[in-house]
Design brief:
Its main location: cytoplasm. With 212 residues, the chain is mostly helical. The protein has helices spanning 3-12, 15-21, 38-45, 48-56, 71-78, 81-89, 104-107, 111-186, 189-196, 205-210.
Length: 212
Amino acid sequence: MGDKELMWALKNGDLDEVKTLLVKAEDVNRTLEGGRKPLHYAADCGHADMLEFLLSKGADVNAPDKHGITPLLSATYEGHMSCVKILLEKGADKERKGPDGLSAFEAAESEAIKALLKHKSAVIVELQRHLMAASAVAFILIILCTCKGFIFAITTGWMYIILLVTRLQATKLPRRLHAERRLVINNPEIVLNEVSNPNYLDNGYLSLYSQL
């Protein structure tokens, strides 16, 4: 495949010839004799259908030529609005500057292209703003869920402690009586001494002894 034939077909918008000449996949990004890639010629000459075909085959939308000019800059310099739109939709970097130090927006002479570039910038800024807001909301929700889980764990722990203390209090009296019952069984003289005491006051031993 000769570069001159391909360059001629690209400049003249002969899509069928270009499809015939671009046999290999890597040819779509090959640097031709003029130091430019096929996408530059399509953008420079305003062939939107050629541009879409090359991009569909994997052409690098931001590839610079030997002068550092991207396809978007080429289309902007020549005022091809349809090509500018396609390149932007395919992710062309509009902030890339040419050899003169100007971006596509700064270099554009067409007000329509300037408006298109500005509109795309506004859309991106708005999208970024919404993404940041969504991220902030998601972060807050995660924090709230985490705090809620922590509070739930603390509340559950305290409820368990209260339940445990309540059960211990409920079993405290039977355990004391059981201990005193064993004391009376093992020491029956305690009951006799208590009863014979003139200051006797039934403290539960007698009732326990009577239940033996």
